[in-house]
Amino acid sequence: MEPRKFASPSCPLVKIHIHHRTSYHYASKVAFGPHRLMVRPREGHGLRLESHSIKISPAYRLRWVRDLHENNIGIVDFTEPADSMTFECEFFLEICEENPFDFIIHPEALEYPFSYDHDLAQELLPLSRNVYFRDIARIRDWLDPFWHPGKRVGTLELLQKLTTHIYQTFRYRRREEKGVQSPAETLENNSGSCRDFATLFMEACRYLGLAARFVSGYMHSSEITGRMSMHGWAEIYLPGAGWIGFDPSWGILATSRYFAAAVSRHSEHAPPISGTYIGTPRAFLKSQVDLYVKEVPKTVPAESSSVQSQSISLANGPLARMTK
Fold first, then answer.
1. According to the CATH classification, is domain 13-97+271-313 in 2.60.40.2250?
2. What is the pTM of this model?
3. What distance in Å separates the CA atoms of residue 263 and residue 202, rounded to the nearest whole number?
4. 239-278: per-residue pLDDT in tens?
5. Which fold is adopted by the domain 107-269?
6. Which CA distances in Å does 91 have to 40, 100, 190, 303?
């Protein structure tokens, strides 16, 4: 039997090169606790990880685990102290350029409101419950123009309206603060980062009884030519279609040029790199990220592609509608 090809004439093959380098600098040598890496792209029927490399310093041991969300997590144990720490990852992907609307929703879920069947609802229950319980009243009031009890609306139409409304009416803001804004804070400020917008969108969907999860990953767009960072968006589970991505930071459905690295119930649970060091707060000097996502020209082999990376400081934050 002839092996099945990854791409077909109706799904052209595209190669993507991701270079992701993060470094941390300290005033003197410090000891490092275990670190977690959630940077490896998740493979699927439309994405294949052709090759990858991960270089880390100082001396370390690396092991991989798969968590309950099927994320590939690298656990790094450092074996010596140092005054700097570096993670340099390189990924070559093969993707199929698919139509983001190429899915079929089960007839009973074409209009909202609908309910998941009993067995599916039990599986999705943790992802269908609101995280920010205190914000439910604010979320309900914000949703009223789009849906209220007694109203029927197309499910996909409703989700697209929420996505485009956030994109069109909220102001994107680079935030230096750690963590994620609550939905109430985002509504009050009328601004936020990609993680804040995804959180508002997810909590609105959960209020409607829909299962939602946060996605952290990479994105390729010809509109982005400057500095980049990890991106965040949301996925909603639609019967018949499965997990469908929505990006309220751009007002679109997630296309085949969105590359998930991790999914989680809460956006704070999917940082690209996390860990600790033993020392005083003053020991930490700075951190820096070099990240680019580029399409590999078809006439140039992936191994010899030449692209120029962009350097950014985490203190200043990224450009475009992307934030760490």
1. yes
2. 0.88
3. 13
4. 999 999 999 999 999 999 999 999 999 999 999 999 999 9
5. C8orf32 fold (3.10.620)
6. 8, 23, 36, 11
